[in-house]
Amino acid sequence: MAQLFDEIIRELRSYIKKNLSKGIGRETRYSGDSSWPASGSRDIVLRSDLGIELGSPAGESVSFLMWTGDSSLVSDGIITILGPDINECSSKNVPFGRVVLVKGSGFNAENIYDRYREMDHLRYDVSLKGYMMRAVSQYMREWSRVSKEAISKGFSLLTLGGVLIDKYRKLNYIDAVEILFVTSSKKEVRELRGMGERVMQYINAMRKMKEEISIDCDNCEYQAVCGEVDVLKKMRNSIKKIEKCRNPQ
Amino acid sequence: MPKSTVIAICGKGGSGKTCVSALLTRILIEDGKKKLLAIDADPSAGLASALGIRVNKTVDDIRNRIIKNIKDENDKKELIAQLDYEVFNAIAEQGNLAFLAIGRPEKQGCFCKVNNFLKDIIKEIAGRFDYVIIDGEAGIEQVNRRVMENVTNLLLITDTSARGRSVAETIANVAKRAIKHKKLGLLINKARNSREADSFRSMTKLPVIGWVPDDDIIRRFDQEGRTAFDIPSCAALKALRKMKKYF
To answer: Mind listing the pLDDT tens digit for each residue in B29-50?
Structure first.
């Protein structure tokens, strides 16, 4: 159940390697001491206080999450930044990409979608002083703003990455977490979007199976995806079994 | 997080609510230290142009788009996140001024879930500003209730007509039951002179916080479609500045 995204994760690993070899990024191992004052409820950063805006609605942004059961595909605690970190950006408005890679265990047809939701929703619980984030999973968009004050006090993508890693590690089915940030250019963010769209196809197929009371595979837009991907096939069969028990005729 | 002063501006149509809202906005943020959110809750949407702000999207546009695609099974957290994203994207910003247009008020039969989430989001955003000014419709019933729940100052605007006074008194009575405002004040707008203002004052029991003279400069700027920030020093602006302490 956890191998759903393995092929895309391998592709992502090549993407990271290719860009690191170009010299536009670096990997940092999270030291485990990321602390930043909380904002109470989610902070709002207005343009008058703005230090930097990442992935604004008018610009390019992409954000998604993938999981695997293969520990060789996730480097636990690694935060990769392709492009400048927040304090190194020359522009106040930069494109933004973020991918979370998770190595987990115990995923099955019954829990896979609920776990995805739990992992995806974690980002909405991040409330840090001087950091504002708005996101729409469906569109894979993530828009954040960091205040001038937060930047002057040292807020960086490493700070954010560390806070997120701590949050993911609290989930008992997660064994390892790795985070990728991309700020280098629209081109690199768009390249990431291509992978994200495939991820979202699988997620949307799962969502449809989970949300719709009755599954009509013949008329479903995700028929091809479910037919191809073993995990989705299993999930569909499991739901069909339940459906059959409920309506034996 | 600042403790917001939430000022709801209500009164009879044509009494000058939008003009007062715009001038008051200018006065409250002109020292550059305070952040203000102006909410245009009047469907005729005049406050945006009075402040020189271009509105790309209203809350009603967001509501309609989401309702069109919503399903009963939609994930609550995801729906809130999407609305939050859209509402924040609909906020126009100009220095320490932020602006949100409500558009048409919610109709009967609208999707309650979406409306409730929207109200909560607007309330949360509003709570992050030093000042919130709501330019309302004639009555307060139509104004966003969740924001109105937090109103600290209810400012009633009237011209010197009996109808203006009657509308203001009706709103004050409804407000007593509907919202927990801390202060309520009546502003007499477009008075010809102090005698007319005093005469009007003697006819109402509402607490009058001041009067603003009928001002040719304001009228001319209004006719020319100029913004509140363009208006030079004039009698109306001076009169309103004196009332700043009320907020």
So the answer is: 998 889 999 999 887 778 999 9
Task: Provide, rounded to the nearest whole percent, the portion of chain A with pLDDT above 90.
Answer: 68
For A65-111, the pLDDT digits (tens) are: 999 999 999 999 999 999 999 999 999 999 999 999 999 999 988 88
Closest C-alpha to A175, from A75, A102, A114, A78: A102
The verdict on residue A228 lying in a domain is yes
- The CA distance from B228 to B244, in Å, is 16
User: Over 60: is that where the pLDDT of B2 sits?
Assistant: no
- Domain encompassing residue A178: 6-246
Return the pLDDT at B123.
83
**Which sequence spans correspond to the domains of chain B?**
5-246
Under 8 Å CB-to-CB from A14, ≥6 apart: which residues? none
**A114–B contact, CB cutoff 8 A:** no
In this prediction, residue A197 has a pLDDT band, given cuts at 50, 70 and 90, of very high
CATH number belonging to domain B5-246: 3.40.50.300
The model's pTM: 0.84
Q: How far apart are CA A246 and CA A135, in angstroms?
A: 37
Residue A155, in any domain of the structure: yes
Q: How many structural domains compose chain A? A: 1
A143 touches chain B (CB under 8 A): yes
* Residues of chain B contacting residue A57, judged by C-beta atoms under 8 Å apart: 85, 89
Q: Which two tokens stand for residue B171?
A: 């709103």
Tens of pLDDT, residues A22-36: 999 999 999 888 789
Task: Give, in degrees to the nearest 5, the angle at Cα B158 between B153 and B163.
Answer: 130
Residues whose CB falls within 8 Å of the CB of residue A86, separated by 6 or more in sequence, listed in order: A51, A52, A54, A146, A151, A155, A156, A157
- Contact status, residue A59 vs residue A142, Cβ threshold 8 Å: no
Please judge whether B78 and A137 are an interchain contact, meaning their C-beta atoms are less than 8 angstroms apart. Answer: yes
What is the pLDDT, as a whole number, of residue B122?
84
Residue B39 near residue B147, CB atoms below 8 Å = yes
Q: Is the pLDDT of residue B152 over 60?
A: yes
Give the pLDDT confidence of B54-82 residue by residue, as tens digits. 988 998 888 888 887 776 556 788 888 88
Residue A40: inside a domain, yes or no? yes
B101 pLDDT more than 60: yes
Chain A residues lying within 8 Å of B3, measured CB to CB: none
A205-244 residues touching B, CB cutoff 8 A: 211-212
Buried b (16+ CB within 10 A) or exposed e, B77-116: ebbbbbbbbbbbbbbbebebbbbbbbbebbeeeebebbbe
**How is residue A37 annotated by DSSP?**
-
Please enumerate in sequence order all residues whose Cβ is within 8 A of that of B13, keeping only pairs 6 or more positions apart, or say none. Answer: B138
In a domain, A1, yes or no: no
* A87: CATH: 3.30.1650.10
